[in-house]
Amino acid sequence: NSYLSTIPEGPPDAILGIAESFKSCTDPNKVNVCVGAYRDSSGKPWILPSVRKAEERMLKDDTVNKEYAPIAGDGRYVELALRFAYGNEMDLGSVAGVQSLSGTGACRIGGHFFARFAPKPKGLDRLPIYIPNPTWGNHIQIFKECGLDVQRYRYYDSKTNALDYDGLIADLKEAPDGSVILLHSCAHNPTGCDPTLQQWKDISDLIKEKSHHVFFDSAYQGFASGDAEADAAALRLFVKEGHNIVLAQSFAKNFGLYGERTGTLSVVCNTPEERSAVMSQLKLIIRPMYSSPPIHGSSIVKTVLEDEELTKEYYANCEEMADRIGSMRRRLVEVLKEVGSTHDWSHVTSQIGMFAFTGMSSDMCDELTSKYSIFLTRDGRISLAGLNEGNIEYVAKAIHDVTD
Ligand code: PMP
């Protein structure tokens, strides 16, 4: 009898498990509003035209090859990606940046970096990281795997369907000085609620007072407003305020590069010397995990951002996605009213980003799936990208039925 026979079946992933069930469902009316991936108005995955053009150029370029990237990835790609996040005014000379396996991989590198180098608050044997409640589910596992002590701060008030700003402030105050605070830089997943710029400023002041460390997770830059520059406002404010932020950047959503696993992890240091030391340590974290990153997605982003025309086209593509999602958000609320729902759904239109955090209970979500083959996470989150004119009435009627 081998040890293999003693291994218990693990639970399916909360999000990707639902995607599997969707795939195997045979109901012709089935709708997938679970996974946060963009779909066009006919429900199909979309390759951005600017991305397609970049790939065509890469195919014709005979200097392109399949050699290994360095441990830290393609330096030119990293530089352009950081420029995209931090803006044109930023001096990148003191920023340590590496390529990562999309946002997930960036969170993992950043988590290990904090666990290895940031001092533990007095009397604690593990460094606490405070993540919002709720948050992207994978954060919990990722930071546990890094050896951090995962704690939560209040983020959302389900009674008002809005940001629980007072709860957030109270919990960050309560956290031991020198904790890591994970912030979603825009379009918070799953709630779609972000602090206002003034609130961000006050959060920044409090974090300074408490000597906390800031870990920004940026998975939706450009997706929130359609304007990647505007969506970077909070992140850039914190840098301006002098925080040595760590940033996990993903190009999965805003470039539609999901499966290409394209991202960066960066640390804003104070001097080029610090940058150099931090770079060397980031490489030591990466090498035993996967040696070096994949090169196709990063070459695409580099090709787009190196070229003025393609960049312009890219910005228009990103805006098109954000606009379609925004219009589905408004349509959903409109159609809910049309089919007879008298609930107040105004929170759905005040939220931003890819998701509607509807406030439906897990029982209601289960009913949507069992009765209507509408697949969503059990926290009531709906990916608006999964909606289109062909299915929105069906979904609205079903939501009305289960919430009535
Ligand atoms: N952070 C947040 C908040 C996310 O929503 C996601 C994707 N769902 C990620 C990080 C990571 O995604 P990826 O690894 O595909 O870039």
Overview of the molecule:
By secondary structure, the protein is an alpha/beta fold. Helix content is 45%, strand content 14%. It is built from 15 helices and 13 strands. The protein has a seven-stranded mixed β-sheet with strand order 2-10-9-8-7-3-4, sandwiched between helices. Strands 1-12 form a two-stranded parallel ribbon. α4 (102-117) packs across α5 (138-145). The N and C termini lie far apart (54 Å). The structure holds 4'-deoxy-4'-aminopyridoxal-5'-phosphate. Residues 36, 102-104, 136, 184, 189, 217, 219, 250, 252, 258, 263 line the site of 4'-deoxy-4'-aminopyridoxal-5'-phosphate. 4'-deoxy-4'-aminopyridoxal-5'-phosphate binds at residues 36, 102-104, 136, 184, 189, 217, 219, 250, 252, 258, 263.
Distance from N terminus to C terminus (CA atoms, Å) equals 54 Å
| Class of secondary structure makeup | alpha/beta
Q: Flag low-confidence runs.
A: none
Query: What is the rounded Rg?
Result: 21 Å
Q: State the assembly state of the protein chains.
A: single chain
Could you tell me the number of beta strands? 13
Q: What's the SSE pattern?
A: HEHHEHEHEEEHEHEHHEEHHHHEHEEH
Helix share of residues?
A: 40-55%
Q: What is the typical, i.e. mean, pLDDT? A: 96
Our estimate of the beta-strand percent is 5-15%
Outline the biggest β-sheet.
7 strands, mixed
Name the bound molecules. 4'-deoxy-4'-aminopyridoxal-5'-phosphate
Any idea what the shape is? globular
Strands ordered across the widest β-sheet? 2-10-9-8-7-3-4
Supply the number of helical segments: 15
